[in-house]
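Onboarding guide, step 5: your first structure request.
Type a short instruction followed by the sequence, for example:

Predict the 3D structure of this protein.
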Amino acid sequence: MGHVTRWGRLGAVAVLAFAGLLIPAGPAVAAPDCAPPARNVVPDLPWAQQWLRPQRIWPLTRGEGVTVAVLDSGVDGQVRQLRGRVDPGQDTLTGGRADTDCLGHGTFVAGIVAAGEQPGVGFTGLAPQARVLPLRVTADNEHPPSETALAAAIRVAAQRGARVIVVGTPVVRAGAQLRAALEEAEAKDALVVVASWGSTQQEVPVDPWVTGRVLSVGGFDREGGLVSGTAAPVDLMAPGAGVLSLGPRGSGHVVEGGNAYAAAYVAGAAVLVRAHHPQLTAAQVKQRLLATSDRVPRQVPDPQLGHGALDLYAAVTAVLPAERGAAAAAVPVSPAVVARPQPADDRAFRVATVVAAAAGGLTLLMVAVTLAAPRIRRRRARAR
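The system replies with structure tokens like these:
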């Protein structure tokens, strides 16, 4: 049930830091432990992509015109499937650029959201035409991002027009800096998506003010098991174990797991929604994602499963009566009744095609007979 990477454990430390149980001394000083170059190219379609089937959405939108900010270890802008769509960004630790990535975590997140299509490669991001704004908030695998770094990155993302902000660590409490940053993101109409807290080993105080301003996401594996237990509120579930994405410094792929990657899938869905429904506010986008989710057979929101699992097709295409007004709903919208599309049945399609063709031919024959009948009668009259 639990596939938790070093970043999953790091997220737990981050929560304790925000909860006031652990206070980071400052920016990380440990020597970087860089991920090896990713050289293994996987041609197959990953399970998460088979489950979400984003190709059904792409005739409507591929995320063009929307920028997603990735608050993480940076994003390698030279990776083949991201090249040309990664902005220089900003390193909140040094003040430099963030379009390189030693650890690879940020590149993995960005790939899930926005990796472009590539011949001979099955993997593609949910929004392959979105732009990526990388904001580095950590530089090693052992220290969580400081609140100062996260707050600065959220402010930069909001000021630079990111309409979706994905944070790879849980955020359930916040000091003055992070509260101010979340308020600025809200004022700039940016949706903040975060990884959910992934452990039941220690109680963590949760601030409803903070959780009401973010979209918290937990992960599940291909059999439906949770990535890990959840001790703090989770809004939505998405693929998060054994998922495939991009690695840094190469054209290959890697497989990882953790709630941060589930958050990336929901961020990608949010990008598609914002591209296809540009009139919706961030609050409305959040409610749309929750209202169109695949429900769990329990009362929602459920402490561990939230409102259910992300339904990408419904999130983009559903018609919700609550969105008819210009303002966002003050309370969660009612669940939408959405028929989940079924895989195409080629035999049924062929039968339907034959029947339609036969019906069309019969109709044409009847029309021809009707038009010809008067002429036939006249000819018989003359013959008499």
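Each response can be followed by summary notes, for example: The longest helix spans residues 346-383.
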